[in-house]
Amino acid sequence: MNYATYKNLPALGGLCSMEAAMKPGLSVEECVGRLKRYHYALKRLSQIFIARITAEPIYELKSAFSLHGHYCAEHVTELRRRVGEMREPPLGLEAVPDAHLELFFDEILSAPTTEELLFGLYEKAIPAVVRGMERHRKDTNPLADAPSVRLCRFALLELQDMIAFGKQALAQLVTPEIRAKCSNWLQLLDDALAAAGDLDGIEPKLDKLLQPQHSAKPYKYEGFPKRDERFPDPYNMGVNAEVFLYDDKFPAEPKTLMMFYKRLREIDVPEMMASIITETEGKPWSYYRDLIRQLWDEARHAMMGEVGFANLGVDWRKVMVNFTWSMALNTQLKPIERHAVLYFIEQGLMPRNGKRFEWEVGQASKNPLAALFQDYDWADEVLHARIGRDWYLKEFDDPKKAVQYGDECWSRVLMGWEEWKKKGLTQHRNWWPEVYKEACKRWRTEPDPKVLSYNTTYQQVRADLKNISVSA
Question: By three-state DSSP, how is residue 68 classified?
């Protein structure tokens, strides 16, 4: 190797050494074959993360599934683009690359417990994708296949973050007894990967007849939300945050509490949007990618509320975060009707009395975190309104009819206020005075009697301040 660059500058733009660029590598056909397998795996992972959000009780896992589903969807999009660059029309991206991989992911999707789901996702599936991508970087020519190497490099950053989260979650939630109980099923996952030649398909294939366990019965999406024990009163509709927020007689500072409550309560949006994404079939991939991005944003908004309460030193468990909206929409409406309600609400947030108003309240409250969070919340909602226009609005010839339909769908949703109370599911307790007084201690101020006495519920007034005509 007598070759030298000008004044020994890094060769090849710093991409790799000259020696590395001379090594043999994957052909285009071999490269595309592997990329399609990563694509299939990440698409299935994204679908699994989203489908399992609603029925997963643990709030932190709902949040993580929202984020990790988004990560996977973004990398699916990049893989689709890369395959499309490589002489591949038609792309064949919707084909299942190996029946054993299909069994592998079907088993994880159908895992009956949280622990088994975590095993499948974070100990088996994601490490298999990492293994394949790392092998791809090693096997391919770093110059000829530089776009694929770059794609793998960035995907691996987030996949490793996902594995790190999973390891911590499993360490806290799984006992040796649970692991031992799952051993046969975990072996089935290993065997399915081995029968596929590993996820990337390059290993010798295990010749073994495999029988499905959890997926022997087809998976059915669970639309009824579940919550962990920190949500003791999920039917509670005793504090109407919007009426308080938009009432001029109340000062800005306590309104930040209501905004943090509204943000934290947004965990029910991923619970509802998961149903739209999972139960809507036959759409272009970009539809799912955009809605998954919105779902992640809504989970992030809930985390903003969580952080807001933590910053004030207020225990958010005293705020009765309900699931009545996601529960009612998931159980009473069709997917397109749920999307209609979502679009109607988004459009209502665009005028001055919507997200801009909340940001102005944050500014006036002298709470920098409230102002910051509402600034980004507002920006996100503008994006979500665009997503609604791109995917929901095209179902209608007249935009006004699209908004009207959303209003009509929401008006048909029955909130069982009295029924839930009679059944003992909730008493719609007014939790506001306790939370407000706790915040006042942190603020070192005396509670305002007018604020303390606030007692308007959702029995007759909807979140968009529209009167409810029917209460089941």
Answer: helix
Q: At residue 427, what are phi and psi to the nearest 5 degrees?
A: -110, 10
Whether 107 and 215 have beta carbons less than 8 Å apart is answered as yes
Residue reference for tokens 């056909």 = 29
Q: Which of 13-27, 49-63, 197-211, 344-358 has the lowest mean pLDDT?
A: 344-358
Query: Is the pTM of the predicted complex or chain greater than 0.70?
Result: yes
The residue that leads in pLDDT, 340 or 352, is 340
Q: Which are the contacts of 457, defined by CB distance < 8 A and separation ≥ 6?
A: 237, 238, 239, 240, 428, 430
Q: Does 138 have pLDDT greater than 90?
A: yes
What element of type H or E holds 147? helix 146-173
**Band of residue 87 on the pLDDT scale cut at 50, 70, 90:** confident
Distance between CA 269 and CA 290 in Å, rounded? 15
* Amino acid of residue 156: L
* CB-count burial class (<10 Å; 0-12, 13-18, 19+) for 121: buried
Count CA atoms closer than 13 A to 67's CA, side-chain side: 17
Distance of CA 106 to the CA centre of its chain: 20
Instruction: Report the C-alpha gap between 328 and 136 in whole angstroms.
Output: 46
Give the integer Cα–Cα distance in Å for 103 and 44: 11
Check if the beta carbon of residue 349 is closer than 8 Å to that of residue 295.
no
Confidence of residue 348 (pLDDT cuts 50, 70, 90): confident
Measured distance CA(209)–CA(198) in Å, rounded: 16
**Do 383 and 297 contact (CB within 8 A), yes or no?**
yes
